[in-house]
Amino acid sequence: MGKIYTxxxxxxxxxxxxxxRVPKTDVRVEANGAIDELVALxxxxxxxxxxxxxxxxxxxxxxxxxMRLMAHVAASGETPLTGMDxxxxxxxxxxxxxxxxxxxxxxxPGADVAEAWLHVVRTRARxxxxxxxxxxxxxxxxxxxxxxxxxxxxxxFVLAESGQSE
Length: 166
Fold this sequence. Notes:
Layout: E1 13-15, E2 21-23, H1 27-47, H2 54-74, H3 84-99, H4 113-138, H5 143-161
C-alpha cells in the first residue's frame, strides 16, 4: 500500500472530483466535511444497535447514500445521484409510523445515552443540510438530495423520541 499522505494539501487546497484544486474553505469542501462527520456519527449510532434492528439497516443505507452525495457535491452537482428516492420513502414511512401524525415539538435530550447521541447526530444532519444549501446556491444540487437531508434530521428526531433509541 502506498502512503496515505500526498502533501498536496499542505498549501491549504484540496482536490475535488475531476481534479480541480480548491481552497479547503470552499463551500463544497465545507459541505463534504459536515457530511463526513455525519456519516461517522451515524456509524457510532448504528454500531450500538442490535444486528436485527431494522433501523440499523436503514441507517447503513443512509450512510451509503451520504457517501454518494459527497461525490455529487465534489462534482459540483454535475454527476447523477441515484438511489435516494427509495431511502427517502423509507424514512418518510418510518416517520409517519412513529409519529401518528403528531407535529414536531422541542425536547430536552438526555433520557438515555442512545437517545442523546441520536439528537447529537440529528443536529449534525441539520448542519450538513445548511452547508448543502450554501453549495446549492452556487452549484445547483439534486432536488432529491436536498429533500433527503431535510428528511434525515426529521427521521433521526423521531428515532430518538420513539423509545427505539437503544
